[in-house]
Amino acid sequence: MTSKKVIELFYDVVSPYSWLGFEVMCRYRHVWNIELKLCPAFLGGVMQGSGNKPPGVVPNKFMYMTKDLKRAAEYFDVPLQAPADPFEVMFKKGSLSAMRFVTAVQEQEKGGDKLVEQVSRELWRRIWSEDKDITEAASLAEAAKKAGLSDGVIKDALETAASKEIKDKLKDATQKALDYGAFGFPLLVYHRNGSPEIFFGSDRFELLAHCIGEKWLGPRPNTSAAKL
């Protein structure tokens, strides 16, 4: 039996393109012969560490992104729509508390990453579909509740999210992405013969498929999959 190819997915729920990449890779994790590792990290730290600038601060890029996201949401079948004030959501409020919370959930979860997947998806849904807050503890708890987490797990995650251990874990994940050469998210890292190959963005799936010896079957390889 051929060993599975390891692919790391670095993402931040403040990034709409990360949501697209996240959903596609979650759909393909049981179609391709891969082991998908979810790696929540902090996009703000990657942007600062790499010296990159968000597309939202460049007027022409922002105008393009607004239209592009509408097309991409339809193509990828993800219920994504921009919040009323993207600048406030992305640059004023940010996602540091949310990503610490996701990291705390990941630290607690044993035997898989289903809870991390579901919590991440609910946070994306709040910010990029329902235009709701993801910074307050009550907001994080509401998203986690919808994701199926118990009250006890939510309470523990909220408490440990503020701990040095979790803060350091998120910093380490962010630094790991930078060490790979990240300048934005989503970042896919395919480990081939001990050497990492990186793919940036949500429009490199065909190239990734080629590199890992798999077939790109479109954004929904399993058309019977449940709607988001």
From TrEMBL:
InterPro entries attached to this UniProt entry: DSBA-like_thioredoxin_dom (IPR001853), GST_Kappa/NadH (IPR051924), GSTK (IPR044088), HCCAis_GSTk (IPR014440), Thioredoxin-like_sf (IPR036249)
MF terms in GO: glutathione peroxidase activity; glutathione transferase activity
This enzyme's EC code(s): 2.5.1.18
Reaction it catalyzes: RX + glutathione = an S-substituted glutathione + a halide anion + H(+)
Cellular component terms (Gene Ontology): mitochondrion; peroxisome
BP-aspect Gene Ontology terms: glutathione metabolic process
Pfam families reported for this sequence: DSBA
Entry keywords, A to Z: Transferase
Domain DSBA-like thioredoxin as annotated: residue spans: 6-211
Keyword Chaperone set for record: no
Catalytic residues (positions): S15 (nucleophile)
KW Repeat (keyword) present: no
Family per similarity comment: Belongs to the GST superfamily. Kappa family.
Cited PANTHER family: GLUTATHIONE S-TRANSFERASE KAPPA (PTHR42943), GLUTATHIONE S-TRANSFERASE KAPPA 1 (PTHR42943:SF2)
Protein name as annotated: Glutathione S-transferase kappa
